[in-house]
Amino acid sequence: MIRNLNQVTFQGFGTVLPERGKATRPAGKGASLILNLEQTSATVYRARTDTWLSCASGTSVLCVSSDGESFLEFYLDKPVCVKKDVYFALEPFKGEASVQICAQSVPESIGKRKSGSLRVSHRIRVEGIYTFFYQEKEQGFLFPGESHPMPELTYVDGGELHSVAEGQDLLLKQGDLVIYGPNQWHMQYADIGIAPRFITISFDVSGAEITPLLNRRFAAPQQAVNLLQGMLREQERMDAYSDDMILAQLSMLLMCLLRETEAPTGSRLRSTNAVHSENEVVRQAQQFISENIRQKLSVPLVAEHVDVSPSYLTVLFHKNLQISPGEYIRRVKLQESKQMIRENNLNFTEIAAVLQYSTVHHFSRQFKEKFGITPTEYAKSVR
Q: Which of 77, 213, 290, 365 lies 20 to 30 Å (CA to CA) from residue 359?
């Protein structure tokens, strides 16, 4: 990626000189030459003394490095003075270009640098998604197992889920995720009395290797959870751009996880410590809501349990989940009502009472607003 050339971005490599036209030259003059730039490769130089560079014709790119290995690219639209011992190379931006070089000593030629693309390219990209399901399973469900050519991600949104692959039985709790590799056989099941809710996504990915992510349990970072929630919202919206948004968000989710695995331990600890307190408050609040969803819940009650003010809890929910805690409580209650309807032990009036709705009509209205169908229609679809 080509960077903007200014005193801040160029710091450490030299100085950006005042823009007073082509006549600007360093003190002491010295040798001067015009360098015609090559399209396919660029000579790497090491500055023996402070070296002045300015675009003579066309448009050019200045590549600089402190070690001769890792280069940064800058659009050479201003004259610069590269300091002694800095490595640099020059490439045409488009078409033909030349650069004027002036220094007390001619820069030392080190070798050739193959000219590459000057634009940013994807390091990792989800090329396609085959399946994207939000699954609500019965208590003690068992999926006997399968394998397929594409990777698959599973994220547990509620309850617990056993993930079995490569001889490992990983117990995934709420907020955990796992990724199965291509052609990796896997099965899933829930313990008796547990009705899990989870997301499954099968996809194709190109670029970076995702092997470090496979068949291991992740406590999903809040950023990853936010991306999954955004994908679900796009799935509900489904306009002309939703598929692209879902693909982009899944790519970002994988990058988020890879960054977690590749970061030095010290960096991970510093990052974790920086957000641990906020994330822990949100996690404890979610757990309290989940465990007490059949009780009469309110934002002040939840805030009191996690020892923060209602206003601060609201700020944290908006920051991390993009909804208010009151709306989160409503969504979890409605998800619980779907489970109760599937169990078929209570009628709608009893379900409304158990979940602390004021009336069955209030419950039915919120159910229809959230899911687009009435409780009666939903019951018919699952029985």
A: 290
176-180 and 218-219 as β-strands: parallel, antiparallel, unpaired?
antiparallel
d(CA 370, CA 214): 34
The pair of three-digit structure tokens given for residue 105, joined into one six-digit string: 């000593």
The CA distance from 349 to 156, in Å, is 29
Q: Ramachandran region of residue 223, left (φ > 0), alpha (ψ -120 to 50) or beta?
A: alpha
Sign of CA dihedral 342, 343, 345, 350: negative
CA nearest 87: which of 60, 118, 110, 115? 110
DSSP assignment string, 69-133: SS-EEEE--S-EEEPTT-EEEEEESSS--EEEEEESSPPEEEEEEE----S---SEEEEEEEEEE
> Do residues 178 and 218 make contact, with C-beta atoms less than 8 angstroms apart?
yes
Q: Using one digit for the tens of pLDDT, what is the confidence trace for 123-165?
A: 889 999 999 999 999 888 888 888 899 999 999 999 999 998 8
pTM to 2 decimal places: 0.58
Q: Are 112 and 42 in contact (CB under 8 A)?
A: yes
| Cα–Cα–Cα angle for 60, 64, 65, rounded to 5 degrees | 160
Which residues partner with 186 through β-bridges?
A: 146, 165
